[in-house]
Design brief:
This protein is mainly alpha-helical. Helices cover 51% and strands 10% of the residues. It has six helices and three strands; from the N terminus they run αααβααββα. The chain is globular.
Length: 166
């Protein structure tokens, strides 16, 4: 299996572990300041990004602005797990060449733009994007007084580890 796909699978499995240990109330809790977003909204956003990749059209175009945004994924752990499992299944079945170009539409803040990516670059972005949102989720979990038993959750692999000075 391709290392980019393996990395995404490894990253997404952290969502499974998290979802298996949350209640629906904790998933949807948006009480933590300053942004009042929930763990569920970030999980849904991560999965929507991957889902867009799998919705490539017949012209080999992917629109990252055309997200599903299923509210139930933000509110119900079982729904989020179902969505996650479907993304994992699609990743495991992915057969495209990672160097193949694909035209990607996104909104970078000044309106929609089309850019040429490779599938490898797009999946790498999706993986980094997920890790970034895990960092935000970690912040929310801290505000909810929930600890996760994964010291790498929300940390990019290139982030230097803090060393203790004695």
């Amino acid at each position: 299996m391709n290392v980019i796909i393996e990395s995404s699978l490894q990253t997404l499995k952290k969502s499974k572990t998290l979802l298996d240990n949350l209640t629906d109330n904790l998933l949807s809790d948006s009480s933590v300041s300053p942004y009042h977003s929930s763990v569920g909204s970030h999980i849904r956003h991560i999965l929507d990004f991957y889902d867009c990749i799998f919705n490539v059209n017949s012209n080999n175009k992917i629109d990252l602005t055309a997200r599903r945004r299923h509210r139930a994924v933000e509110l119900e752990c079982s729904c989020a797990i179902q969505y996650l499992d479907s993304i994992i299944d699609k990743l495991m079945d992915f057969k495209f060449d990672m160097t193949e170009p694909v035209l990607v539409t996104d909104d970078l803040g000044l309106g929609k733009v089309e850019m040429v990516y490779s599938y490898g670059a797009l999946f790498s972005q999706a993986n980094s994007h997920a890790i970034h949102h895990y960092a935000i989720i970690n912040y929310i979990l801290e505000g909810l007084n929930i600890s996760i038993k994964d010291s790498d959750f929300g940390y990019n692999p290139t982030t230097p580890k803090q060393t203790s000075f004695n």
